[in-house]
Amino acid sequence: MSYIPSELSYTNTHEWVRPEGDGVYTVGITDHAQSLLGDMVFVDLPEIDAATEAGEDCAVAESVKAASDIYAPLTGFVVAVNEELEGSPELVNSDPYGDGWLFQIKVDDENEFTDLLDADGYLDLVDESE
User: Fold this and answer.
1) Please, what are the domains in the chain?
2) What are phi and psi of 43, to 5 degrees?
3) What is the pTM of this model?
4) How does pLDDT run across 58-95, given as a tens digit for each residue?
């Protein structure tokens, strides 16, 4: 059973989203996603100031099993990336909701956030896929 924190929001493509205030949101991949991918060997993060479009790919997680696109959960632009992942991509596996975060987005429209899944909705999605 994957760990699904109730305070976060989720996408149907297995990204999690945490509001930080002032229209900034932190994004990562879920515990479920990292467990399916396996041991991370590289994470290709977006550039600072890169535009993001909700639902469009913006990063890549490479594991020993496969490479997987990471999709922007919200429209805006990248204001920070987790530089720790450059030397330690395994943080995505060991702490997907903490030190393994991927990037932060400053959003254009905070109403998009309300379209994301809550923890129960994401749990339903994960249960359907198993």
Assistant:
1) 9-109 (2.40.50.100)
2) -130, 120
3) 0.96
4) 999 999 998 999 999 999 999 999 999 999 999 999 99
